[in-house]
Design a protein that fits this description.
Length: 340
């Protein structure tokens, strides 16, 4: 399996030119889509984007959102996301506060929330699944892309573009194993609204427990965290066993450099998770500053999950209040719209 399977599977971004609806705190002039059928790639660019000067990563920047439809049946395999300047040069990844794509028509496995297909931050690198795996999507499924950018320089940056390159497998090819993105949040309140939590001074531990309604295997596991994160763990509640550990690499002042991942190479078929069994997600932060950082942390494990029986994947309950709250947040209709 590719080393860069870390965050989540693939993003499906096509069809923006055909009646896409753009919702943004700061208007995006245009969205363009190029579909390279021979290379099985779709390239989506949003811009030109104006980035205000001296916008800090620690303060949640305005978030742009756009809805669109996935136009063809198939499987999502891989993606990369880059921020470019007006001359097409790649800008530092630290300027990507967060970006992602959600599937408005499918729920997550562990929580009654909208399915996140991609969750990219500054630590996220290109993702590619092997040809034997893919995230199934039907033609016409409603997706939503969002992003928030920062500019730590002392000058306004004009003409930037966000470029998303998607690799996908068409339905006409051999059927891959259905793999779905699974999010496991250390925040004990991941039920819609903000997913951020405070970072107290010194070492702190935040954790939550979950069960899965169906069994299956995690093929890899990575994490999304913020500055001062030390590690994340997946534990068995009943035995206390650490099933996976994700470490960070940090600068001397504690700021994040990179996040490790694991592919479960010594477990045939991946790490097996049982249905209705209690597991725990643990996040460890170490804040070396002298002040508590309000809403300064996020901490969730992410990875491709192959269910034993895909037919048992829980259906969306559109009347569920938790699902509706999460949907409203994604659409920017709540106060926490910028907190992914």
């Amino acid at each position: 399996m590719n080393r860069r399977i870390v965050s989540l599977i693939v993003v499906a971004v096509v069809g923006l030119a055909g009646g896409a609806r753009i919702l943004a705190d700061e208007p995006v002039t245009s969205v363009t889509v190029r579909n390279d059928v021979d290379r099985r790639e779709v390239v989506v660019t949003a811009g030109p984007i104006v980035l205000p000067a001296a916008s800090s990563y620690t303060h949640h920047p305005p978030e742009a959102r756009m809805q669109f439809q996935w136009p063809a049946a198939g499987w999502l395999r891989g993606y990369r996301i880059d921020l470019l300047d007006a001359d097409g040069r790649v800008l530092p990844r630290e300027m990507i506060h967060h970006a992602g794509v959600v599937n408005l028509e499918r729920r997550q496995l562990a929580y009654p929330l909208v399915e996140r297909l991609v969750a990219a931050g500054r630590e996220t690198r290109p993702v590619m699944l092997p040809e034997s795996m893919g995230v199934p999507l039907a033609a016409g499924q409603k997706l939503l892309m969002y992003y928030a950018l920062v500019n730590p320089t002392d000058r306004v940056m004009k003409g930037a573009t966000l470029k998303l390159t998607v690799t996908w497998t068409p339905e006409s090819t051999r059927t891959p194993a259905p793999a779905f993105p699974v999010y496991l949040d250390a925040n004990p309140r991941p039920t819609g609204g903000t997913r951020s939590f405070d970072v107290p001074v010194g070492v702190s531990v935040t954790s939550s427990e979950f069960t899965l309604p169906i069994a299956g295997r995690l093929r890899a596991l990575g994490a999304h965290v913020h500055d001062y994160a030390v590690e994340m763990r997946l534990e068995d509640v009943l035995t206390g066993k650490v099933m996976a550990r994700i470490k960070t690499k940090r600068q001397p002042d504690g700021r994040l450099i990179s996040v490790s991942m694991t592919r479960f190479l010594f477990k045939r078929g991946g790490l097996r998770l049982a249905a209705n069994h209690p597991y725990r997600v643990v996040a460890v932060y170490d804040n070396p500053t002298s002040k508590m950082i309000p809403d300064g942390a996020m901490a969730f494990l992410v990875g491709p999950f192959i269910p034993d029986d895909v037919r048992l994947w829980p259906a969306v309950d559109s009347a569920d209040k938790v699902f509706q709250e999460d949907l409203a947040t994604l659409l920017g209709k709540t106060a926490h719209a910028g907190h992914r």
